[in-house]
UniProtKB/TrEMBL annotation:
Pfam families per the UniProt record, alphabetical: DAO (PF01266)
Name of the protein this chain belongs to: NAD(P)/FAD-dependent oxidoreductase
Phylogenetic classification of the source organism: Bacteria, Pseudomonadati, Pseudomonadota, Alphaproteobacteria, Hyphomicrobiales
Gene Ontology molecular function: (S)-2-hydroxyglutarate dehydrogenase activity
Family (UniProt): Belongs to the L2HGDH family.
Length: 361
């Protein structure tokens, strides 16, 4: 079977790899000039454990399974990563109830390595931390996302697949034997197609012949700003506050060199914008000092921003991943993926297997 995967972010590459390893002819088409230029390159590079997501949801299932697979993949492919662990901290007693609920959800989801700590126990692990209570996750880690995507690309090509850059897929039309993808003045006949186009997923779905407009969910853009932090690292683990609407709160992450950065916040926007407003630093100082009062004045510097392709907006509950395959919409050889934001990177290898199975590949 010849399969076209649209989008060369981490999820599209993982899907292309899974299909190529199953013996199919795979082309991954990417509108940009390289892999991972969108959501996949503008995130926290965290390997999530899987305790935040409702039981039975796609996010819970794929995050937990994907995390296990991702660590194994990184080990076997030499992808730089580190299982550094994470503390989710409660600054107040009411927030303590929040993290207790997250612990219970994690246990239900089958997440390993979770334990509730009081403030003194948390401070013994991280002396610079201030909190009422904390949830320790030993399975949370960090990864070099670009090295991960290069490894996925390598597997695709080693299995006979190919990547086509600067190839924006504009329309999908049906044929008796499959699909025709149109891009510019050219077209390509394929047996099946997977839409993993992230921000472009809804646009391509609307340009898919026979796919009902009513099935296309709205796209909500949530910008997340990040600030770097000067000075020596003050923590050995990732530090997360209790979650907030639209995200997991302004948290501290570490890169593989040990550099601290903070973010993302949640800024609802109408159009893509990757500029970090230095004025948002005041919000960051206030949020961070709830768990790290020792953050020095002037230590934060604007770093970068990412945008998440959400399916829910302000005041709404977090939406699950949406995978629409032949069993749901009735069109053979077609899978659309919508709202694949966090924990999409962690979930990528598990999502890939799910998508391949839905195609009957």
């Amino acid at each position: 079977m010849m399969v076209l995967v649209v989008g060369a972010g981490v999820v599209g590459l993982a899907i292309g790899r899974e299909l190529a390893l199953r013996g199919h002819e795979v082309i991954v088409a990417e509108a940009a000039g390289g892999i991972g230029t969108g959501v996949s390159s503008r995130n926290s590079e965290v390997i999530h454990a899987g305790m935040y997501y409702p039981g039975g949801s796609l996010r819970a299932r794929h995050c937990v399974e994907g995390r296990r697979r991702l660590y194994a993949f990184c080990e076997s492919h030499g992808v730089p990563h580190a299982k550094v662990g994470k503390l989710i901290v409660a600054a107040t007693e009411p927030e303590g109830a929040k993290i207790a609920a997250i612990h219970a959800q994690g246990v239900e989801n089958g997440v390993e390595g979770l334990s509730l700590l009081d403030g003194a126990e948390a401070r013994r692990l991280e002396p610079n931390l201030t909190c009422h209570a904390a949830l320790l996750s030993t399975e949370t880690g960090i990864v070099d996302s670009h090295a991960l995507m290069l490894a996925l690309q390598g597997d695709i090509e080693a299995a006979g697949g190919a990547l086509a850059f600067n190839t924006p897929i504009e329309r999908l039309t049906r044929t008796p034997g499959g699909w025709v993808a149109r891009f510019g003045d050219d077209e390509l006949a394929i047996d099946a197609v997977v839409n993993a186009a992230s921000f472009g997923a809804q646009t391509l779905a609307r340009a898919t012949e026979g796919y009902p407009e009513a099935r296309v969910p709205r796209l909500v853009l949530a910008k997340g700003n990040y600030f770097g932090c000067t000075g020596r690292p003050a923590f050995a683990r990732l530090i997360y506050p209790a979650p907030v609407e639209g995200g997991l709160g302004i948290h501290l992450t570490l890169d593989l060199a040990g550099r601290m950065r903070f973010g993302p916040d949640v800024e609802w926007i109408d159009a893509p914008d990757y500029e970090v407003d230095p004025g948002r630093g005041a919000l960051f100082y206030a949020a961070i000092r709830r768990y790290w009062p020792g953050l020095p004045d002037g230590a934060l510097v604007p770093d970068y921003a990412g945008i998440r392709p959400k399916l829910s907006g302000p005041g709404e509950g977090a939406a699950d991943f949406l995978i629409d395959g032949p069993a749901e919409h009735g069109l053979a050889g077609l899978v659309h993926l919508f709202g694949i934001e966090s924990p999409g990177l962690t979930s990528s290898l598990s999502l890939a297997e799910d998508v391949a199975d839905r195609l009957g590949a």
